[in-house]
Amino acid sequence: MRRKTSFGIGAPRWGVMLCLLAALATPAAPLMAQEAPAGDSAAATSQEPVLVVSIAGIDQVGGAVSYLAEAVGQPGTGGMFAAMAAGFTQGIDATRPLGITVQMIEGAPAPIAFVPAADISQFLKRIENQVGPAEKLEDGTYVIAAGANLLYIRQVGDWAYASQNREFLADVPDDPTTLLDGMADTYDLAVRLNVQAVPGPLRGMLVEQMKQGFNQAAARQAAEAQAMGQRTLEQLSQMISETERLQLGWSIDPASRRTFIDLEIVAVEGSELAEIYDGSQPVPSRFASVIRPDAALYYHAAASVSPKAVEQTRQSLDQTLQQVGEQLTKTGELSESQATEVEALIKRLAELGMDTVAEGKIDLGVLVTAGSETLTASGGALLADGNELAALLKDVAAKVEEEPGAPRFLFDQGEFNGVTMHTVEADVPESEEEARQVFGPVLQVKLGTADDAVYFAMGEDAEARMKALIVEAEEPDASDRPLGQAYFSLLPVLQFAQSVDQQEVIAAMIDAIARSGETDRVNLISNSISRGQRVRISIGEGILRAIGAGIQADQMKQQGGNF
User: Fold this and answer.
1) Is residue 132 part of a domain?
2) Do 332 and 355 belong together in one domain?
3) For 203, how many CA atoms within 13 A lie in the half-sphere containing its CB?
4) Contact 380, 389 (CB under 8 A)
5) CA atoms of 382 and 135, how far apart (whole Å)
6) Rounded distance between C-alpha atoms, residue 50 and residue 266, angstroms
7) Distance between CA atoms of residues 526 and 535, nearest Å
8) Nearest alpha carbon to residue 368 among 478, 480, 462, 467
9) Looking at 436, 459, 479, which one is the last position of a domain?
10) What is the rounded radius of gyration, in angstroms, for the C-alpha atoms of the chain?
11) I need a surface site. Which of 58, 412, 510, 529 has the fewest CB within 10 A?
12) Tens-digit pLDDT profile for the chain (563 aa)?
């Protein structure tokens, strides 16, 4: 039975790890020749793989493809895949997992594939017309032509292993599913990269290539941009050197009518990266009330921040501010005095944000509701000094009050539960017909500033909704809540869009969702694990059906057809 998990989000810089996958394909044997003793290939195959690819089984993947194809309105595609799979996999057990492992043997990547087959000769006979007959060697190993190369296949019990190097098959396990470490029980398709199994010289080569690319680009940039790029490069290098494992998994859960993607990153024990991850834990939140099932969208995060993360954030912010100052001067759209004033305001805002992070936690929430002809937004965030934000806004208001079309600020309109109330108004141009239909002739935003927080709301009953958020501030327990979570419901957004501007495509998508139950949701959940973080992105079936209906409606519209 498939094991269900509740994974979450969030490690930064996932793209760096993907670069390592590309690096594995780099001809690196001369550089790595001393990483493994020559002539010891059999012993090397018992080492931890650098890369493991898990496929739950041909039937499982075929079922997932058919499900997705039917959901997006293309059932024929799923049927075609099933027919092709059945025709080309005779002799392979379609109910058991298969996969690929990549180990570093004598300094070079050594991929080995394995498939469940009690007698692989049946499969080889089936593909004989495509690759030619298989030759059986004296030890029972088969060899076939794979393009310009030879592929060796060895039967071990009810499994078959394949490699381009015959020696690599000398010491394979009786049960290769032990290498998958349960991934096939949870995912239809999964990939695990054991970063520390990548030889140090190869990781160093990747970092060196990144440095060379940076140096070439930096030669054409200002000093401030170079400093920022250097800091980014240092962070990427840290990710490569201090990440232990990166895993990506995808699966279909027909019972809940959802497809999900899990990302997981784990840092090396004792590393700075591990300290940063372990320092991020859920904390009580003032803004957890934004987590509502009737929302069109919400985002919430409340977590502790480690001292090491604070330090890195400060360094990055300092470099960013240096570049901002340089760019303001270069635009030519502002006078020198104006650029100085804008830079000073940006620095004040950045320092306020940095002071907030330095307190060792983040806490924020945003809620958007939508429906026919209605759109509202509200939210708030922990702030080191809300009064400083109010003072900064007052300075901005004083500088722009004579500018044509500038927003109007109404400060200190009252107090509610220790929160000072303000209003910002802006005229919506008559030429913006749709915007006027949404916001009216005047866009109004309610603001609230407290000693340690800021609140906002816009749309119908804005002030009442902001006050409700203030009253519902305290959450006594955070033990069952993830670090962060985001939620999106497509139906209310489409209903709002249709009320503003009726479209046949949107109508078709709304109809598809209405027939899909409450599955028009996307969820993103971030959880802390030991020395790392997990993210799950879950997409409901209704989203897929809406996309399929929208595509079909658009095609019919272009062809001049009728619904």
Assistant:
1) yes
2) yes
3) 21
4) no
5) 70
6) 15
7) 5
8) 462
9) 479
10) 29
11) 412
12) 343 333 333 333 334 333 333 333 333 332 332 333 333 444 444 478 899 999 998 888 888 888 888 888 877 776 677 666 666 677 888 899 999 999 887 777 889 999 999 999 888 888 887 788 888 898 889 998 877 788 999 999 999 999 998 888 988 889 999 889 899 999 999 999 998 888 777 777 777 777 777 666 655 555 555 555 666 777 777 788 889 999 999 999 888 889 999 999 999 999 999 999 999 999 999 999 999 988 999 999 999 999 988 888 887 777 677 666 666 666 656 667 777 777 788 888 889 989 998 999 999 999 999 988 788 999 999 999 999 999 999 998 888 877 777 889 999 999 999 999 999 998 888 888 777 777 788 889 999 999 999 999 998 889 999 999 999 876 666 667 899 999 999 999 999 988 888 888 989 999 999 888 888 999 999 999 999 999 999 999 999 988 988 888 888 877 765 54
In a domain, 279, yes or no: no
Output helix, strand, coil percentages for the chain, rounded to the nearest 5.
45, 30, 30
Residues 110 and 138 in one domain: yes
The type of residue at 153 is: I
User: Are 45 and 103 contacting, i.e. CB atoms less than 8 angstroms apart?
Assistant: yes
Domain tally, the chain: 4
Contacts of 257 (CB under 8 A, 6+ apart): 516, 517, 519, 540, 541, 542
HSE-up (13 A, CA, CB side) for residue 200: 3
Distance of CA 75 to the CA centre of its chain: 28
Phi-psi region of 255 (alpha: psi -120 to 50; beta: other; left: phi over 0): alpha
Rounded distance, CA 165 to CA 559, Å?
54
Q: Are 139 and 37 in a shared domain? A: yes
Tokens of 185: 């029980």
Residue 125 lies in a domain: yes
**Are 407 and 433 members of one domain?**
yes
Q: Within this chain, do residues 355 and 397 fall inside the same structural domain, yes or no? A: no
Q: Confirm whether 95 is domain-assigned.
A: yes
Instruction: Tell me which residue of 460, 538, 474, 547 sits closest to 505, measured CA to CA.
Output: 547
CA proximity to 189, closest of 198, 200, 176, 180: 180
Domain with 230, as residue range(s), is 209-242
All residues at 6 or more sequence positions from 185 whose CB lies less than 8 Å from its CB, including other chains? 2, 3
